[in-house]
Please model this.
Amino acid sequence: MTITFEWRGAAENEEIGRLHAEGFDHAYDPTDWTGLLSRHSLGWVTARDHEGLVGFVNVIWDGQAHAFIEDTLVADRARRQGVGKRLIAVATEEAKGAGCEWLHVDFDDHLKSFYYDACGFSPTSAGLIQLR
Model:
């Protein structure tokens, strides 16, 4: 299977929404993804195969030194093929190219090996307040 990766690749709200629902195991929600991306993102990476969107990651930022990985998603049909790792690699390259000094990510415990071992993130201390 040939997969192409593109920084700020074209994507439709519905296809991102369907991939998000699959990746986070929830019902499809008709979110205005393109509006959110245009307002809040440094960029995003899309991954496509012959059937369509198989991967996506959003890179939000503070407009200066800090970028943040959000919504790393890989379709079931493309998992365990290095798609997620390549999404993060492209996001890292582009955030660095934009002048960011730091790339942050938070994740559930079962993803430690992916982010630390496969993608090269280092553990840090961080805090979180659940708002709802």
